[in-house]
Amino acid sequence: MIDDNPLKHLLSLELSTGKKTFLLEKKFYSVGRSSSNSIIINHRVTSRHHSLIIKATYHRKKENKADTAFWILDGDWQGQKSRNGLFINTEKIDLHKLVPGDIIIFGGIEIRAKYDIVDIRSKELFSVLDKKHITEIPLSTEVNDINHFDQISSNNDYQELKYLGEENNYCNNTIAELIEGIILIDSHHLQIVDCNLSLIKLLGYDTKEEILDLNLEQLFPLDIEILKDDIYLLNNQYSDVSRDSVIKTKENKILSVELKVRFTEKLGQKIICLSVLDLTQQRKLEELLRYQIYHNPVTNLPNYKLFKEHFFSLLANYSALDDGFISLILVKINEWQEIGYNYNYEVSELILKTIGKRFKQLISSKDIVYHWRDDQFAFLLAQNTSDYSEKIKYQILQVAEESFSVNEEQIKVSLSIGEASYPEDGSYDEILLQKADRTLTENYYEYVKEKC
């Protein structure tokens, strides 16, 4: 379906190395250091899974139109909070409905973002944040204020269903059974009054009565405030609300679900109907696809796309430190073309896998090695010392000293290296990349000359 709504939702992420603007269109976005996130922020003050941005879609009662809002949640769907907190306009929050102009701080002031709405017809931003809030934000985060330990605390709209055709069989209609669960709620007291068999099975309960004894907070512990807001809006101008959510099972497990909230009738009384669709397998597939997007399929090392994300945010991290030092090392397999001509792809893949494995053994947990292209690898070293960089370069060259045994044949390769260092060679990712690539090319040409 073509989105002809002229109002677009934006998240502008500001780092010391520049700004990135994301167009918010998906049903939810995960934010944090982990490469599995939708928005990756590789910074010392951010957690692996720092926050979630959740889209809620509100369909109007008498118009074929929909409105959109975004909520932001501290931590992940499992209830694990971020280490250093989530702040909106300097106030620490657990859950917040975003308003145009909101300033979001992901753990430390170095990582801030602004939420806004733009009318693409007039190019007008809907910012409403009072400027005095911005002046209250400090310029940097003190190192002593950073908490380095995670805290634990207690991600298609549905097709329209016509399952409530008759009052007396609203939970038994065959179309209703196509979705995972139905919860019916008294609209006055917000108590659960009924559910279907699919919901009982989904949550692992034995009887309907067990669920009827629960309250909404027990089923929706993380986003109950969003649900209450959904119901409030339904009472006014909207026919239904749809968004991603999570629901708790009998065994206290958290399931990712798609939730649709609407009004219906039972025995002549107006009640709230929650339709719940299990997204667990879909989430696993999405995580697998995201992993494949960011990793090389042969070596399983992070690829160029993830390198760019990491490099950008890593520079932002270290630019705030006086003693920050980052080394970018590019490595090229000199004999790659000959290997391709003389051997099949299985041999080529075996050599790549072996090199990747050897490279990973050289670095510490603070460093990352990437499989950039077929014949190129990249290292990001963040150990705050040039001596460490020299040591790793020596060890990289030593990797090629050991031949590769393939089908009882010993294959020898050599490597060319290019390097650039922050801040000595520049402060921006593109400048450092150009320097490293230039020195790599020069060293490779030296290899070609010697071979000729």
Automatic annotation (TrEMBL):
Transmembrane segments: none
Gene3D superfamilies: 2.60.200.20, 3.30.70.270, PAS domain (3.30.450.20)
One family name in Pfam for this protein: PAS_9
InterPro entries: Biofilm_reg_signaling, FHA_dom, GGDEF_dom, Nucleotide_cyclase, PAS, PAS-like_dom_sf, Rev_trsase/Diguanyl_cyclase, SMAD_FHA_dom_sf
Domain FHA: 29-93
Domain of life: Bacteria
UniProt feature coiled coil, ranges: none
Domain (GGDEF) ranges: 324-452
Protein name: Diguanylate cyclase with PAS/PAC sensor
Taxonomic source organism: Cyanobacterium stanieri (strain ATCC 29140 / PCC 7202)
